[in-house]
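Raw record, unedited: Branched-chain amino acid ABC transporter permease
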Amino acid sequence: MGTFIQLVVDGLSTGSIYAALALAIVLVNQATGLINFAQGGMAVLAAYVAWWFTGMGVPLILAILFSVLISFVLGALIERYVMRRFERGDPDTAVVATIGLLTLITGICGWLFTYNNQQFASLFPLDTVQFFGASISIRSIGTTVVIIAIMLLLQGLFLGTKLGLALRAVAINPQSASYSGLPVGRLLMTGWGLAAALGAVAGALVAPQLTLTPGMMDTALVYALAAVILGGLTSPFGVVLAAWLIGVLENLAAVYVPFIGYDLKVAVPFALIFLVLILRPQGLFGRKAVVRV
C-alpha cells in the first residue's frame, strides 16, 4: 500500500508540471483559437529571467514577479508584431509559426545563458512529510496547490468575467466581435500576455524540480498537449485532471504492468489519446462545437 500511495503522489506531482503548461495552452486557445507550441519556450525564457534576477541579488519571489510582468509584455508584443500576421490566415500556418517561435526562443535561451544545467531555487521547502508510508515533499504539495488555484482562477475568468467572455468571443469569431464593438486587437494581445505570464509561473514551478536548461520544457510540452487533448481545450478543470491522470497512470503502469515498465510508460498517454479521440473527440470535459450553416 505504501508503494501504491507513493506512486500516486509522485504521479500527481509530475502531473502538476504538465498541468501548469497545459493551462497556458488552454488560455491562448480560448483567447485566439490557436494551439501555441511556443508556450514551452516562453516558459523557459521566463524561468531564465527569474534566475538572472536572483543572481543579481533580487529575492526569489520578486524575481518571479518581475519575470511574470516581463512575460506578459513579451507575450503581448509577440501577438502584435508576429502572430497577428498569421491569425487571420490559414490556422495551420499560424501553428507552424508557433513551432518556429519555439525553436527561436529556445535558441535565444541557449545563446544568452548557455546550455549548461543551472540550479533554480524552489519557492517551497524541500522537507517531506509521511503519509501512510509514502514520503510527500512539501514542494510537491505547494506546486499542486498553486495549480489548483490557477485552474480555479482561469475557470472563473472564462465563465464569470466580462474579460473572459470577450476573449472567448474574439477566439470564436473575431469579425463578429469587432462588429459588436469589442477591441479585438487589444483582447488578442491581452490573451497572449496572460498566457505568457501563466507560462512564467509554470517555469518557476518546474525549474526547481528539473534543472534549468533551454530544453527543459520539451518533454513537459508533449505531455501538456496530451493533457489538453484528453481534458478538452475548453476546460481548465479538465486539463488539470487529465494531467494528473496521465502522471498517475504512467507511474502505475511502469510498476504494475510488466510488459510496459519504465521504458514504455511514455506510450500510456498516447494510448489514452487514441482512445479518447475515438470515443469523445472534444475531450473528456470539452464542449462539442456546433456549427450552423
